Amino acid sequence: MELIVDLLKDALMDTLKMLPFLFGAYLLMEYLEHHSSGRMERLLAASNKSGPVTGALLGCVPQCGFSVAAANLYCGHIITPGTLLAVFFSTSDEAVPLLLASPGGLPVLLRLMAWKVALGAALGLGVDAFLRSRGKLSWGRDQEAMEELCEDCHCEEQGVLRSALHHTGEIFVFLFLTTLVLGGVLEIIGEERLSMVLMEGSIFQPALAGIIGLIPNCGASVLLTRLLMDGTLSFGAALAGLSTNAGVGLLVLFRVGRRHTIRNLQLMGVLYLAAVVCGILLQTAGV
After folding, report:
1. Is 262 exposed, middle or buried (0-12, 13-18, 19+ CB in 10 A)?
2. How many CB atoms lie within 10 A of CB 102?
3. In 190-285, where does DSSP find H-type helix?
4. Measured distance CA(25)–CA(204) in Å, rounded
5. pLDDT tens digits for range 133-184
6. pLDDT tens-digit readout, 220-239
7. What pLDDT does residue 43 have?
8. Which residues lie closer than 8 Å to 210 by C-beta, 6 or more apart?
């Protein structure tokens, strides 16, 4: 019973932290849906050219709220795929407060954040440039995409504020239940078993850490950070795992953009491959 209560409390607290970001993202999308102007659309389109840089900087803020907001904004065609990937790559969930609280953790944190922001921005700019060169990056507020987000919710009858609250509450419940289940699974598996899987000193560590990082729960980032500080995990492997660990941003991406599963899987694949390649290169270079 005590374990269940702890899991419920942890899931509730983790989900409550995301509420301001969720509400802010939906408020912006509802405003664009109801009151957007040509000027606003031109502004968003112009900002998308440097969006990955901004996204990488915002993503390194502690907690995974920005990754949740970015997933929603991406599904509404408000930010580009490159910006979304930049946010996901630089997000480190619980790693920031944990490293700040650890003796000698500040230099490691600064080095980690510098690499994640630089590599995340480069990844995002590269992806957008590639899509643009192929004629597949036509971005900006998309009416059809916005209507998909608002399917069956009668947003046009509720107004901006009520619509934003409706969507926020819906996703909040989904995130709470998912976080609760994942927390229970991680508790059953145990950190010791997960750390054994990571094969200390192996060149394959970044690839394995990247898989663990894909677990949409703060427990994954806590584990990776602890192993880094204990010396079990190399810096490159930790970077790989913490770069795929976009918190629950990936969960929201697949939930909100459920009609585009293939596209979402492609984005997740790019995120994973980029994180692992960067991790292996850094580990091989002894960074």
Report:
1. exposed
2. 15
3. 191-197, 205-213, 218-230, 235-244, 249-256, 261-285
4. 37
5. 988 776 555 545 555 555 545 455 556 787 778 777 877 887 688 778 767 7
6. 787 788 788 877 789 999 99
7. 47
8. 240, 241, 243, 244, 272, 275, 276, 279
Can you tell me whether residue 91 is helix, strand or coil? coil
Residue 2's Cβ-count burial label (10 Å; 0-12, 13-18, 19+) is exposed
Q: Compute CA distances 215 → 80, 188, 210, 212, 222, whole Å.
A: 24, 14, 9, 6, 12
Would you list the domain boundaries of the chain?
Answer: 2-285
Give residue-wise pLDDT tens across range 95-146: 777 787 777 888 999 999 999 999 999 999 999 999 989 887 765 555 455 5
Q: How far is CA 111 from CA 116, 169, 279, 282, in A?
A: 9, 37, 13, 12
Contacts of 246 (CB under 8 A, 6+ apart): 64, 67, 87, 88, 89, 91, 93, 216, 271
The SS3 assignment for 215 reads coil
What count of other Cβ atoms lies within 10 Å of the Cβ of residue 109? 19
